[in-house]
């Protein structure tokens, strides 16, 4: 986990991202206790935001604030579970492929590449339409359609770690292949699979909202996706009831943004060139020098020309 | 070079075969048989005799799986995807045909605009890195990119369509126009397509920008660029002909994969705008439990994505001699 700790220490982006995401997780766990029952009809339908109902009411007279807060729970849970499952499945396919090479790699790589080019969302829609509607189906569908990218990234990294001396040393000292993969290789690419898991969580939150928006989820359960499904079904756009879909969308975007920031921060740490620039600018400023188009130039050199 | 192109074609044919087989397997792998699933979804609105008809329609005879598979493949090759339930009694292939052009137009155009614009911005931002544009633009676009496609579409539709009335709110062309190659019709199609296309471009722009920026930053640090500068070439030339050209390759190779991803998103955008493409048909299929149409759409979309990927491979090959060897 040192890569993650490093990222948090060194990158403000990663700290902001994790903080914002943490806020939403807190909201999802504790929030539903503070607001009323999201399914209950509390007032006239489609009331604009007011003192009684801060975010107005839906087409069925439910409180939008309660719906948004309650929706966070399933949406985030689905995203995180898919993130974990996809990373596990990706590691299960990608690490052995890179580690063993040869025929094993060839076979698994074809499998990964095929799943990578098949368009994920249409496949997910077809699968979800056949399965009984509900969070379990959506988790299964998104895991099955989303693992290939993670597998490919982990395979590439395993391929380069495989030839390092510490792997040979572990093998010579009598560790089995499974032990080497679990104890030597996986811990040495923590920041990579953490970043894959974060990316997948981001994708899964959006995709599950998309599936539910289509009506493929359990429409009686309150999630961000079903909130948007009901908003369109109740003709929110036609009647100008922006408050029925705006809060959910902004929450989705903020969670997405938080995860993007976290990943950018992780990237900065693993690829120092990306972050080096800011440090360089600060150093130049401190030394009273100015920068040219792309490479630094001393003020004195400017005068000599 | 031809060998490489053919090898890639072979891979995409394999992928197409996997998609076709998945299409066959999915209904048969599900708990219960597909006809019973559909029957259950209609909740008693179907006469019991319809169950047998449904089974026949799905080719779910008592024949062994292998011969069912052969029948399925034979029907597929002759373009027979069954009859649509939502648009009964039109054949699925015909229904899909009505939406194909609109999807290719909307998604294709948006992807190309987004790729060109995002890549150019990425080049510029990397060139002036640390500047105000580099500080402001990537986070802003990353934020916009975090919105789900269809939600941004809803917001744009509400603001620019309903509230401000600047753009038409549904369909691909006005109800008073007949599809024809006239100037008035084309102008109307552009007016209808502008808002959906703009939302797709806005969401995807950030990805292209940051991919190109990362790639540019690496190339700009190379000695080839230092040498080009030392030769005293104009900065513009160094930026575009030396750095950007070399940095472009990773973006081009990821373009193929992005096509599938963007197409998925544009399907949802179509639904919001009631744009008569594949996405809108997909919604009709989901709403009406039209499984033949749904699976036909999956096949059509997949084949389109595979074809696009192959073309991208050929372009990448033309751009980079290393790919060829």
Please write out the topology.
The complex is a heterodimer of chains A (305) and B (325).
Chain A: H1 2-10, H2 12-34, H3 64-100, H4 102-117, H5 120-130, H6 135-162, H7 165-172, H8 177-185, H9 190-213, H10 224-233, H11 246-270, H12 272-286, E1 290-291, E2 296-297, H13 299-304
Antiparallel strand pairs in A: 1-2
Chain B: H1 2-29, H2 34-41, H3 49-57, H4 65-77, H5 92-127, H6 132-145, H7 149-163, H8 183-220, H9 223-230, H10 235-273, H11 278-287, H12 291-319, H13 321-324
Helix pairs in contact in B: 1-12, 2-3, 5-8, 5-10, 5-11, 5-12, 6-8, 7-8, 7-10, 8-10, 9-10, 10-11, 10-12, 11-12
Mean pLDDT across every amino acid position of chain B: 83
Main pleated sheet of chain A: 2 strands, antiparallel
Number of strands of chain A: 2
The largest pleated sheet of chain B is described as: none
Q: Report the CATH topology name of the domain at 99-324 in chain B.
A: MetI-like fold
Q: Which terms would index this structure?
A:
heterodimer; A: mainly alpha; 2 strands; 1% strand; B: 325 residues; mainly alpha; MetI-like fold; 13 helices; 77% helix
Can you describe this structure in just a few lines?
Chain A is mostly helical and 305 residues long. Chain A contains 13 helices and two strands; from the N terminus they run H-H-H-H-H-H-H-H-H-H-H-H-E-E-H.
Task: Describe the structure in your own words.
Chain A is mainly alpha-helical and 305 residues long. Chain A has 13 helices and 2 strands, in the order H-H-H-H-H-H-H-H-H-H-H-H-E-E-H. Chain A has helices at residues 2-10, 12-34, 64-100, 102-117, 120-130, 135-162, 165-172, 177-185, 190-213, 224-233, 246-270, 272-286, 299-304; strands at residues 290-291, 296-297. Chain A has a two-stranded antiparallel ribbon with strand order 1-2. The longest helix of chain A is centred in the first third of the chain and has 37 residues, at 64-100. Chain A starts with a helix and ends with a helix. By secondary structure, chain B is mainly alpha-helical. Chain B has a domain at 99-324: MetI-like (MetI-like fold, Orthogonal Bundle), CATH 1.10.3720.10. Chain B is built from 13 helices and no strands. In chain B, helix 7 (149-163) packs across helix 10. The longest helix of chain B is centred in the C-terminal third of the chain and has 39 residues, at 235-273. The mean pLDDT of chain B is 83. At the A-B interface, helix 4, helix 5, helix 9, helix 10 and helix 11 of A face helix 1, helix 6, helix 7, helix 8 and helix 10 of B.
């Amino acid at each position: 986990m040192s890569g993650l700790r490093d990222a948090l220490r060194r990158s403000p982006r990663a700290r902001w991202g994790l903080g914002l995401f943490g806020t939403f997780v807190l909201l999802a766990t504790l929030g539903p206790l503070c607001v009323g029952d999201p399914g209950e009809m509390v007032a006239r339908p489609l009331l604009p935001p007011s003192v009684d109902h801060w975010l107005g009411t839906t087409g069925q007279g439910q409180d939008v604030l309660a719906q948004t807060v309650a929706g966070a729970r399933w949406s985030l849970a689905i995203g995180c579970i898919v993130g974990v499952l996809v990373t596990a499945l990706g590691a299960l396919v990608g690490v052995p492929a890179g580690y063993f090479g040869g025929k094993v790699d060839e076979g698994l790589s074809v499998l990964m590449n095929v799943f990578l080019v098949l368009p994920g969302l249409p496949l997910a829609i077809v699968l979800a339409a056949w399965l009984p509607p509900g969070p379990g189906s959506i988790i299964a569908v998104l895991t099955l359609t989303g693992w290939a990218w993670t597998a490919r990234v982990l395979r590439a990294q395993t391929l380069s770690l495989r030839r390092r001396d510490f792997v040979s040393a572990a093998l010579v000292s009598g560790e089995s292949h499974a032990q080497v993969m679990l104890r030597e290789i996986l811990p040495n690419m923590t920041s990579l699979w953490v970043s894959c898991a974060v990316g997948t969580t981001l994708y899964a939150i959006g995709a599950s909202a998309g599936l539910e928006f289509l009506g493929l989820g359990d429409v009686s359960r309150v999630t961000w996706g079903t909130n948007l499904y009901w908003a369109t079904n109740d003709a929110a756009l036609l009647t100008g009831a922006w408050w029925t879909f705006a809060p959910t969308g902004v929450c989705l975007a903020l969670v997405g943004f938080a995860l993007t920031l976290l990943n950018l921060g992780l990237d900065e740490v693993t690829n120092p060139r990306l972050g080096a620039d800011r440090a360089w600018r600060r150093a130049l400023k401190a030394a009273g020098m100015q920068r040219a188009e792309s490479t630094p130039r001393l003020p004195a050199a400017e005068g000599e020309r | 070079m031809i060998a490489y192109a053919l090898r890639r074609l072979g891979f995409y044919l394999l992928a197409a075969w996997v998609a076709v087989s998945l299409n066959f397997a999915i209904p048969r792998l599900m708990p219960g048989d597909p006809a019973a699933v559909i029957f259950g979804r209609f909740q008693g609105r179907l006469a019991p005799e319809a169950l047998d008809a449904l089974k026949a329609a799905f080719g779910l005879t008592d024949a062994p799986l292998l011969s069912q598979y052969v029948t399925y493949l034979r029907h597929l090759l002759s373009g027979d995807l069954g009859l649509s339930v939502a648009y009964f009694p039109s054949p699925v292939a015909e229904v899909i045909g009505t939406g194909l052009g609109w999807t290719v137009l909307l998604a294709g155009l948006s992807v190309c605009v987004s790729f060109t614009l995002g890549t150019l911005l990425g080049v510029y931002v990397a060139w002036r890195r640390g500047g105000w544009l580099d500080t402001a633009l990537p986070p802003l676009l990353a934020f916009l990119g975090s919105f789900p496609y269809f939600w941004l579409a809803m917001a744009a539709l509400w603001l620019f369509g309903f509230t401000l009335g600047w753009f038409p709110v549904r369909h691909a062309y006005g109800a008073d126009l007949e599809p024809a190659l006239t100037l008035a019709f084309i102008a109307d199609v552009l007016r209808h397509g502008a808002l959906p296309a703009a939302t797709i471009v806005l969401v995807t722009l950030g990805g292209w920008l940051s991919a190109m920026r990362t790639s540019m930053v690496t190339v700009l640090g190379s000695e080839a660029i230092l040498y080009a500068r030392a030769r005293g070439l104009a900065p513009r030339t160094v930026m575009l002909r030396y750095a950007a050209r070399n940095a472009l390759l990773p973006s081009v190779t990821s373009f193929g994969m992005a096509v599938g991803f963007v197409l998925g998103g544009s399907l949802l955008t179509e639904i919001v705008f009631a744009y008569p493409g594949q996405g809108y048909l997909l919604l009709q299929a989901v709403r009406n439990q039209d499984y033949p149409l749904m699976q036909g759409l999956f096949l059509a979309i997949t084949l389109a994505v595979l074809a696009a990927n192959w073309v991208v491979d050929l372009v990448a090959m033309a751009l980079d001699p290393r790919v060829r060897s």
